[in-house]
Design a protein that fits this description.
Blueprint lengths: L6 E12 L2 E12 L3 E5 L6 H9 L6 E6 L2 E2 L10 E4 L11 H11 L6 H14 L15 H13 L5 E5 L7 H18 L2 E6 L2 H7 L2 E6 L2 E6 L1 H6 L4 H6 L4 E7 L5 E4 L4 E3 L9 E7 L5 E3 L6 E10 L3 E8 L3 E8 L12 E5 L6 E4 L1
Parallel strand pairs: 3-8, 3-9, 6-7, 7-8
Antiparallel strand pairs: 1-2, 1-4, 4-5, 9-10, 11-12, 11-14, 12-13, 14-20, 15-19, 16-17, 16-19, 17-18
Helix pairs in contact: 2-3, 2-4, 3-4
Amino acid sequence: MTSASTNDIEFRSVAKRYGSVTAVSDINLAVPQGAFVALLGPSGCGKTTCLRMIGGFEQPSEGMVYIGGQPMNGVPAYRRPVNMVFQQYALFPHLDVEQNVAYGLKQMRPRAATAEIVRRTQEALEMVRLGGFGKRRIHEMSGGQQQRVALARAIVNKPKVLLLDEPLAALDKKLRTAMQIELQSLQRELGITFLLVTHDQEEALSMSDLVCVMSTGRVVQMGPPQEIYDRPASLFVADFVGKTNRIAATIEPGAGSVRLANGVGLSKPARANGTVGAAMVAVRPEAISLVRNGTATLQGTVTHRMFLGSTVEYSVEVEGLGDFLVTADRRNESELAEPGERIGLNFDPNAMHVFPA
């Protein structure tokens, strides 16, 4: 039975168990057509299990998986309109680049004409900027080139959905950044849905239209990257996506204040979300400014200074609250604080995210 849908992928109350171990529990997920979506979470959160259920390598223990409105439960991997780029690429070492890319086309039944296979193979290679590399052996290609061969092999069949299982993990930082841009450009050019599995927050935020954050087999928040970063739905999301400072606090009822663990009182932020009593406050490092002279919300001692190129990160110990991470611009070298220096910390109370303790 076909379900009319504007979503390329849907999970409806999906669970996956391996014996007594529950890998995925009650997942409800909708991936719009033509979107670039990242499944983000720590190791063991269930993101790769979800990817494998979409690809047909695993079947759900409960619930339904749909691709393009069609139920996929029980449908084998080779009959699904998806292709997958594996973390280790899984290229055939005994075949050249052209033969690797053409392999999937040659397995299709009825088989396409030889001229059609050649044309589509060359198109796919041109799309990933490997035109002219068709006769190269796999061992003659760099890591980034092998990744593009794997991409060409995955897109040559024109799948409805392309699954990417941490495909950039083996690349160095500079090449990984270049490939992130290439993947975004390729996705826009093809117009097909990309689903990326990663534990790299920067990768997820920079590449995707939507980020789906997972923890312990469940989806804890899904939304655009800026929303995930600026308005985390839980302390886990605030902690896992980007860097954050956690501060124990007490939230007074009504229009009261936030009382930090060291006794400092601050006005209640709009993001208190009705929390009252014991709470945990999260503040991003870039929302905190260093104050040498003048009034400051907190006072502390610089314990470490870390040079990061365009920015500097400080670790500042505040009595009664512990260490704070502060990100500062380094354009004015004369304003850099030194380890051991007493310094003030200021931040707007509305920069705080408040969660129940």
